[in-house]
């Protein structure tokens, strides 16, 4: 009987092992690496000879380069919605007809509808551990500041560490503002009109040409003061209200600090892989590089031939190398599908506050 029990145990054990191996073979790990506003001319595998991207080039050399791989939109929000769902962004209500076309504020009520079917939901249903690390930019709340209806955890991700909105110049002091020109056009002219009207009414009242009720002068003064106060409040508090780092539903850093930010995102990605070596996983590592505000850690700052933009590209390539390295460490390279892309091409019109082109490097035609 003891021999029979031992034999039965060994048979069950072997069947379990075989089942696990079959499951592992049929359910490969998936790692999706997404750059932000990266130009095709910024990588060695696509012809760049001055920016060092050995790890991304290795992916291209050992895998496949998709030269006819077209983004669904030239803007972050709709392009990422299409990436997650496999549908044109307009079908999920993620294509705007305004000039902006993306979410700029954490308080925006719009976002990727929770009923949309994302690949993260499908893989989660098949037993995958799922994580999104980095930039989201597909909305957060619907009707309150904590319903999280558009949050990554509502779209099939078990774990989220990153920015719910996006990386903007206004998030990093000294990098200028994406709103300043628009504000000048939309608010400064009405404020100037109100101010001039107030002065003219005061002069007319003073010289006696026309009797102006003091209520009118008071209204003009209040409107001008409120407009200026609103403008000051917007710029002063924008970073605190819209540029922050979250872990799942909790804000862990507000406002966002750019110190070693790529290293922190990479560390989270590496730790996620380490926690899931025995089960299939989906990791979406959505970089902030190379969207402005441009940044790089001390290790990479000033090391490239093309300023801060080049530093950011090379730091992102380092991060890709760290991810590939941890796969080799845990012997997962042959069991993992790794895909590198950008949400769309370079923002070639992007100019820094000092007038320098920051939208990519393409040979002699910078930007």
TrEMBL record:
Q: Which domain of life is it from?
A: Eukaryota
What keywords appear on the UniProt entry? Calcium, Hydrolase, Membrane, Metal-binding, Signal, Transmembrane, Transmembrane helix
Q: Which residues form the Sulfatase N-terminal domain?
A: 28-354
Q: Extract the signal peptide range.
A: 1-19
Which parts of the chain span the membrane according to its record? Answer: 187-209, 216-238
Pfam families, A to Z: Sulfatase
Q: Which cofactor does it need?
A: Ca(2+)
Named from the GO MF annotations, one term is: arylsulfatase activity
Q: Which family does it belong to?
A: Belongs to the sulfatase family.
Protein name per Swiss-Prot or TrEMBL: STS sulfatase
Which species is this UniProt entry from? Oreotrochilus melanogaster
Q: Which gene underlies this protein? A: Sts
